[in-house]
Design a protein that fits this description.
heterotrimer; A alpha+beta (1004); B alpha+beta (187); C alpha+beta (109); B: 187 residues; alpha+beta; Gyrase A, domain 2; Alpha-Beta Plaits; 2 domains; six-stranded antiparallel sheet; five-stranded antiparallel sheet; 5 helices; 25% helix; C: 109 residues; Folate-binding fold; four-stranded antiparallel sheet; two-stranded antiparallel ribbon; 6 strands; 28% strand; globular; Sarcosine oxidase subunit alpha (chain A); sarcosine oxidase activity (chain A)
């Protein structure tokens, strides 16, 4: 069993007890514990069930690389699945539940999968669940869906109550990793005077050295770490951040780091996570190395863990992994675990060393301590189900015949170490295979480069393939010095003395034993989280998935949330053996950010709730809100769709608004439409290029409706242009077009016609613009003292400057409804005031604010087109009967050449007409008109579609506009529209002006 | 919900965020080296053409450099219309455009310990907010979370201008970034 | 997440302050041009695996368009320059030639 030792534990504070639950069981630990160490202290080694086979799984590692021990933390709004117990700091009141089992962790029905494993190898789902065909939808898929996945999703109603944020930091040197290498690197970088940021993913500093021992600069590693931290904390140009993981490296020195600000202190007001967005001149990755498992049968049974993890738990947390721990290894480092456990009074029945000659000084030390060492041996299989009970020993060079059985309840395994090269690889740094150490390490000749082609990342310490303290410290010093030089900073730093590495060479052991038979290989695990075993990779090779990328996806090796931290190299080695190629030839798959999972919320940062997107409001917004506005999103703007009075449906409101506007007086908030000033001696010339119309001929005081096309010929915007003076035009655009057309204008002026003298200014938000619409529009304005707007004083399509209600205003006589109509522009800060005056003065005229839907209906009744309704990016003015807006006098304008292409200059194109159903029903927007016969694909032929469809209050029936083949020549003809349920609705082709065809209502 | 661009608003804390209400702003498009611009600004109130990313001051008025052919004049709100007309008149012989845009923007100020003020900004913009990168008087147009804005530090306080339609959003951003419970401890 | 130095305001702009604008130095063809020339102007782009001359706009900044010479593979930036020119300046061409022996501007398809 695993237990808490009476003494020791570098990181725990025995004075503070934290209570927590695991699957409802009350447990306790100390401040400083991780959930992993606290669970082990309480003899809870079994922590979950594996993904596919539902095998019992235990804690394997002590850090971020943990593949098995994933739990659901918390409950309700704060429930979060798939949290690794090894990096979860214990706090009082923590609730944890294990995952992927039913009905319980101890008795899991899913374990049947393990019995059927012969039929469920890698890729089985590509070969099964195919027949009978109908079973997929009704039987297989629902079953798979229910049993798939690891953790449990939070409740549908759960809402994350925490806040998250980003933080942008600009530094000269970013050092990632707070072990000895990182601390030394930061110290050297700081000496240069540059800005240094040192981040460490754990809550504690120092990395492996305080556990593994050794001296730096004459002091014990632990003491050197503390002293260095203190020194760095006192330097103004250095920032230290613990609990902050380097998540990803990107272009030009950009890096993200994930700070877990208050995960360990729930209930705090502080943000839960902070995503650092860092720009660094140079990046030093001191990310250490991760130990590899050995591949032997039963290496996944709870109680089998990495050798370094076993000693981490013992030394850092005073937790013994087992009463009797057998160590199995191919290298000298694992002896440190045997020695550490022994020194704590724990039993180490044997060290199984796969090397025929065993190891060096550390082995000698172990033997001197009375620890039995078996050389040239391996573990044939582990005994036990939910917990290790013993190991069967064999010759490493053999096929796995059992020579001896040793009783034990923990196995500490070491297959060697792999430098953590993820960040280096994220931005294209290449790796080289080290034949002596049998790992991939960063290739310094092919480092990631930055904007000027120079190297931007330097790996130091174990991350750079150095496993001895002396080499680590020296590498950190020289590496950082070179990095600083690249950004013009210099230091004269000497590496302190440190313990040299005194170890015999390791031997690569990719399968234990070397000639293990199939029955053993089928239980030798490579990827614990995704349940991939040695035989799976061998099967992939056999089936032809010889590329490492294919093997990965076929077997799912390395695709779990641990991104293969314990499995990549071991799996790669099996594949290369199966293919008969060297490991470097087979290569690795791609490492991608983030290094370990980060919360989606941290990526969103502040963008949730009210700040999810930048909602845009006009100056009249609060009035609309207070008066029943039903909001319509128009891009980021919010515009009233309709104003619903109590008890009114939306349809009723729209009808009421349309009727009131045509009968007396409506008000529309038109502030969102774009308003762009174009000024200069070349303004007219410029306007003539932008619009299809002749605009330079527009006289001051006059307005003209204009169309804009893209260079590809398609209609992209429309609006009324007002000539302000000789040099100045004011262009109105659609709401969605304001920024886009302004940018379009600037693009042409800056990148093509840069010698033309034209200034452009986007003044959209300077004005509140109110449509005063209807037979009583002039009356209400004159009631407010507006002068000069009589029938002959201000004819249609003219504008004047004046005063409305004492507020300076520009008054446009323009109409989008066919009614007598004025648009009044006032400074936005006075918009609310003007609106209020109009409401008050308009009472006697039944003044009715109307929204976008009523606006749409009114214009449709008059056959006016709308960008985005009649146009969809493929429509040209000629399709909409707008030939009159295309100047024949201009030699050139944007879109002219495009419209000369044969498919645009083509009478076969569908053209705009009105549509009137014969049964009085309303046609759905977008419905297609069918034509006789089928096309080559067997689809029904079409001859038109509906572009706008509304209920018209003025006509008392629905109206629609649409594009129809030869439409204008087929007036009166009845065609059929297809409904989504397969039925057909007939509609007659009519003209597009349904109401007041003579335009009399405007002529007043 | 009130109109914070017009009426102002305050979120108090160690760093206090204020929506300042209407500010006078005049946009001017002209080439920076056009002598007509220099003399028009002098005439307006003894103002000078600022260098790139800078501002110049004269009493209550200031000129912000917005781009190589654009400046923004800050003045009293009630004077803006008249001043923009005066400016247009002074510039009438030249190829230039001056327009009153006082109502098109919202202006905010963050006051408090300067390091905390800079930290609040640093949560929202990729622009470096450290004292050496954003010294007093440097005007930086940039991105604030999801919108465009301009920031500058003056007398230890941060000034932010953004489009009026996004006033509630920007105020929310600044308030959240400046919250007492969200200290970063970096600057 | 590139950094490009805006030649108009001097800011070393983060990519999130910028909008990309495609290939630089396109020749506009209008009325009177052949279908091939017009099609090429609208749709044909070099898309090199290597040195690319491209347009960018400092959208959340001074608002100006500028040009950049950048390697599409390594993201090395050889320089940024004014948008008001029909071809890259000679100092940038020289820099590219020095960094990429064997590269010639004409070799772009």
């Amino acid at each position: 069993m695993s237990t808490r030792l009476a003494k020791g534990g570098r990181l725990i504070d025995r004075a503070t007890t934290h209570r927590f639950t695991f699957n409802g069981r009350q447990m306790q630990g100390y401040a400083g514990d991780t959930l992993a160490s606290a669970l082990l202290a309480g003899d809870q080694m079994l922590v979950g069930r594996s993904f596919k086979y539902h095998r019992p799984r235990g804690i394997v590692a002590s850090g971020a690389e943990e593949p098995n021990a994933l739990v659901g933390l918390g409950s309700g709004n704060t429930f979060e699945p798939n949290q690794r117990v090894t990096v979860t700091e214990l706090f009082d009141g923590l609730e944890a539940q294990s995952q992927n089992h039913w009905p319980s962790l101890e008795f899991d029905v899913g374990a049947i999968n393990a019995k059927l494993s012969r039929f469920l190898p890698a890729g089985f789902y590509y070969k099964t669940f195919i027949h009978p065909r109908p079973f997929w939808k009704h039987v297989y898929e629902p079953f798979i869906r229910k049993s798939a996945g690891l953790g449990k999703a939070p409740d549908k109603e759960a809402r994350d109550p925490d806040t998250y944020e980003h933080f942008y930091a600009h530094v000269d040197v970013l050092v990632i990793g707070g072990g000895v290498a990182g601390l030394q690197a930061a110290k050297v970088a700081a000496q240069s005077g540059g800005k240094v940021l040192l981040i460490e993913q754990n809550a504690h500093w120092g990395g492996r050295a305080p556990v593994d021992g050794g001296t730096v600069d004459g002091a014990e590693a632990d003491a050197w770490v503390s002293a260095t931290l203190e020194e760095l904390e006192g330097m103004a140009n250095v920032t230290l951040r613990a609990r902050t993981m380097g998540a990803g490296l990107y272009d030009h020195g950009y890096a993200t780091a994930y700070e877990r600000v208050s995960d360990h202190a729930p209930g705090s007001d502080a943000p839960r996570h902070r995503l650092w967005r860092i720009r660094a001149g140079q990046i030093v990755t001191a990310t250490g190395a991760i130990e590899r498992p050995l591949s032997f049968a039963g290496n996944d049974i709870p109680g089998v863990m990495l050798a370094s993890a076993a000693r981490d738990f013992a030394v850092n947390y005073a937790v013994s992994p087992g009463d009797r721990t057998v160590v199995v290894t191919n290298n000298d480092d694992a002896y440190r675990t045997a020695l550490a456990l022994k020194s704590l009074g724990l039993s180490v029945p044997a060290v199984i060393d796969a090397r025929a000659n065993g190891g060096g000084a550390l082995m000698a030390e172990a033997e001197a301590q009375g620890i039995r060492v078996l050389k040239g041996k391996g573990i044939a299989k582990v005994q036990g189900g939910a917990r290790v009970t013993g190991v069967e020993i064999c010759a490493q060079a053999g096929e796995g015949a059992t020579q001896e059985t040793i009783a034990c309840d923990a196995v500490a395994m070491s297959g060697g170490w792999s430098p953590v090269v993820h960040l280096w690889s994220h931005i294209g740094g290449k790796l080289t295979w080290d034949e002596t150490e049998n790992f991939f390490r960063p290739d310094p000749e092919r480092a990631p480069i930055t904007h000027d082609g120079s190297a931007i990342v330097t790996a130091v310490g174990a991350a750079n393939g150095h496993l001895g303290l002396s080499e680590i410290v020296s590498d950190a010093t020289s590496g950082t010095t070179s990095a600083l030089k690249r950004i013009g900073l210099s230091v004269d730093a000497a590496a302190p003395e440190a313990s040299p590495r005194d170890e015999a060479p390791m031997e690569p052991v990719w399968l234990m034993p070397q000639g293990a038979k199939r029955a053993l290989r089928a239980k030798a695990w490579l990827d614990f989280q995704n349940d991939v075993k040695v035989t799976d990779v061998q099967l992939a090779a056999q089936e032809g998935y010889v590329s490492v990328e294919h093997t990965k996806r076929y077997t799912t090796l390395g695709m779990a949330t641990d991104q293969g931290k314990l499995s990549n190299i071991n799996g790669l080695a099996i594949l290369s053996q199966a293919l008969g190629e060297g490991i470097p030839q087979v290569g690795t798959t791609t490492f991608r950010p983030p290094y370990t999972p980060i919360s989606l919320a941290s990526i969103a940062g502040e963008a949730k709730g009210e700040l999810f997107q930048p909602i845009r409001r006009t100056a009249l917004h609060s009035w609309h809100e207070e008066n029943g506005a039903e909001w319509e999103p128009v891009g980021h703007w919010r515009r009233p769709f309709a104003y619903r009075k109590p008890g009114e449906s939306t349809h009723d409101a729209v009808t009421r608004e349309c009727v009131a506007t045509r009968e007396s007086l409506g008000l529309l908030d038109a502030s969102t439409l774009g308003k762009i000033l174009v000024k200069g001696p070349d303004a007219g010339r410029f306007m003539d290029m932008l619009y299809t119309n002749m605009m330079s001929s527009l006289k001051p005081g006059f307005c003209r409706y204009g169309l804009m096309c893209s260079e590809n010929g398609f209609l992209m915007d429309d609006g009324v242009v007002a000539r302000i003076d000789e040099d100045t035009f004011l262009c109105h655009t659609t709401t969605g077009g304001a920024e886009r057309i302004h940018a379009h204008m600037e693009e042409w002026l800056q990148t093509e016609w840069w010698d033309w003298k034209v200034w452009v200014l986007n003044v959209t938000e300077q004005y509140t613009q109110i449509g005063v619409v209807g037979p009583k529009s002039r009356a209400v304005l004159e009631k407010l003292g507006t002068e000069g707007i009589g029938k002959d004083d201000l004819p249609f399509m003219r504008w004047i400057d004046g005063n409305v209600g004492g507020i300076p205003a520009r008054i446009f006589r323009i109409s989008f409804s066919g009614e007598l109509s004025f648009e009044i522009a006032v400074a936005a800060n006075r918009g609310r005031e003007l609106w209020g005056k109009l409401i008050e003065a308009g009472q006697e005229f039944n003044v009715t604010p109307y929204g976008t839907e009523a606006m749409h209906v009114l214009r449709a009744e008059k056959g006016f087109i709308m960008i985005g309704e009649e146009t969809d990016g493929t429509i040209i003015p000629q399709d909409l009967g707008l030939h009159w807006a295309i100047s024949k006098k201009k030699e050139d304008y944007i879109g002219k050449r495009a419209q000369e292409r044969s498919f645009m200059d083509n009478p076969e194109r569908w053209q705009l007409v009105g549509l009137e159903t014969t049964d009085g029903s309303k046609l759905p927007d977008g419905a297609y008109a069918v034509a006789p016969g089928n096309n080559a694909n067997g689809q029904v032929n079409t001859q038109g579609r509906v572009t706008s469809s509304y209920h018209s209050a003025a006509l008392g029936r629905p109206i629609a506009m649409g594009l129809v083949h030869n439409g204008p020549d087929r007036m009166g003809e009845v065609i059929e529209f297809a409904m989504t349920d397969g039925s057909r609705v007939p509609a007659k082709i009519t003209g597009t002006i349904f109401f007041d065809p003579e335009g009399e209502k405007q002529n007043v | 919900m009130s109109d914070i661009a017009r009426d102002g608003a305050r979120a108090a804390g160690s760093v206090t965020v204020d929506s300042l209400g209407p500010q006078g702003m005049i946009s001017v498009r002209a080439k920076m080296d056009d002598p007509a611009l220099a003399s028009a600004l002098t005439e307006l109130g003894g103002l000078s053409v600022p260098g790139p990313l800078s501002m110049s001051r004269s009493g209550e008025m200031a000129v912000l450099w917005m781009g190589p052919d654009e400046v923004m004049v800050l003045c009293a709100y009630n004077a803006a219309q008249l001043l923009s007309e005066k400016l247009s008149a002074s510039l009438s012989g030249a190829h230039a455009l001056a327009a009153n845009v006082s109502d098109a923007r919202a202006m905010f100020r963050l006051t408090g310990p300067e390091n905390e003020v800079r930290e609040a900004l640093a949560k929202l913009t990729p622009a470096d907010c450290a004292p050496d990168a954003l010294p007093e008087g440097r005007v930086r147009r940039t991105r604030l979370a999801q919108v465009a804005g301009a920031i500058w530090i003056e007398e230890g306080a941060a000034n932010v201008i953004a489009f009026r339609s996004g006033a509630d959003y920007v105020f929310g951003l600044l308030k959240t970034a400046a919250a007492d419970s969200a200290r970063v401890g970096y600057f | 997440m590139l950094i490009l130095e805006c030649p108009y305001c001097g800011v070393k702009a983060d990519e999130t302050e910028l909008h990309p604008g495609g290939e630089a130095h396109l020749t506009r063809f209008g009325p009177g041009s052949s279908d091939d020339a017009f099609e090429s102007y609208l749709f044909m782009r070099a898309n090199p695996k290597g040195v690319h001359f491209e347009r960018w706009r400092h959208a959340h900044g001074c608002g100006k368009w500028f040009h950049a010479a950048r390697c599409t593979v390594t993201l090395e930036v050889f320089g940024t320059y004014s948008a008001q020119t029909t071809e890259p300046p000679s100092d940038i061409i020289e820099k590219i030639a020095a960094r990429r022996p064997g590269w010639a501007k004409e070799s772009q398809a």
